């Protein structure tokens, strides 16, 4: 993908679905080695297909990429659009043509792209995100564009899970089982009602929560929510922390930690092992309200080769709903999963295993209400 092209696209955002179609088709055909023809507004059996890219590959196979174009596409609407374009592709396919369905939009968020890909359909957007895969004939096209909508204007709804408010809402939605109203979520999370409404609207658009109009939240994709949260947060929490060394190793650290009276919570892989034996931890991650105080209590010293990572959290929600296990204050599973996702080294792979455990044991950590 040429950065110069991306710059020019950002300066001239597509205004119509046909503009999205043409821009996405240009991106796709630039990456295909075969000559192709493009038809727009193709009518077949009373249906209208936004675009069809037709190719004949060297072995003689005729391929038709059947495209449904949307100016905007939210994650929650992706499944319906995929079903629609797949049905259109079935109309095009016959004994001599291999039809491949594809969805294009001005911009597709990472969750929307993942949802489309999981359903076996290709996608492209005008920022350069492209995915198309077929087995017969073998075909694979993939490129990466923007991970944020470059044309989102001021005053548009929130498009990220960064920040303290998002942390509080994600933790509450993951930790408590629905149904619950938006005022209930605000109360459970400690976020303002206004911020809760705005954030829930964003989560609905991303397909992370479900509710009927003016109705309580009926379903939460808690795993998708945590994974999206971790994606947006990245390594920001780890970057706020400092490495310290406990020369006698983690068992000695835990012995000292059991005697600490000040507020702290253990998270990361060392905390995860108190719920599920995943892999032997090599690093302790601790949140503390006073880093200096905790370091003094534990008699640690800063070291770039340390085995203890300590920091002050962006919000006190990290301490909420923790458990005391083996004499230690251990973070809630939802917090541990996030910190593994954003952790160094093998943290993300450990997060996947821990999220699997959470999925198998929801009754042990999700709560029925705010009691």
Overview of the molecule:
The protein is an alpha+beta fold and 371 residues long. It contains 15 helices and 16 strands. It has helices at residues 3-11, 17-30, 75-92, 110-118, 164-175, 182-189, 193-205, 222-233, 236-239, 250-257, 268-272, 291-298, 333-341, 347-360, 362-365, and strands at residues 36-44, 47-56, 62-70, 97-105, 122-125, 130-134, 139-143, 209-211, 217-220, 242-245, 264-267, 284-288, 301-302, 308-311, 323-325, 328-330. The strands form four sheets. It has a seven-stranded mixed beta sheet, with helices on both faces. A five-stranded mixed beta sheet has the order 11-12-14-10-13. Helix 5 (164-175) packs across helix 6, helix 5 (164-175) runs antiparallel to helix 8 and helix 6 crosses helix 7 (193-205). The longest helix is centred in the first third of the chain and has 18 residues, at 75-92.
State the helical fraction. Answer: 25-40%
Calculate the mean pLDDT score and round it: 86
What order do the strands of the largest sheet run in, or round the barrel if closed? 1-2-3-4-5-6-7
| Stretches with pLDDT under 50, minimum 5 residues | 1-10
Q: How many distinct beta strands?
A: 16
Overall spatial form: elongated
Distance between the termini: 52 Å
Strand content of the residues, in percent? 15-25%
Rg (C-alpha, Å): 24 Å
The largest sheet, given as strand count, sense and whether it forms a barrel, is: 7 strands, mixed
Number of helices: 15
Structural class: alpha+beta
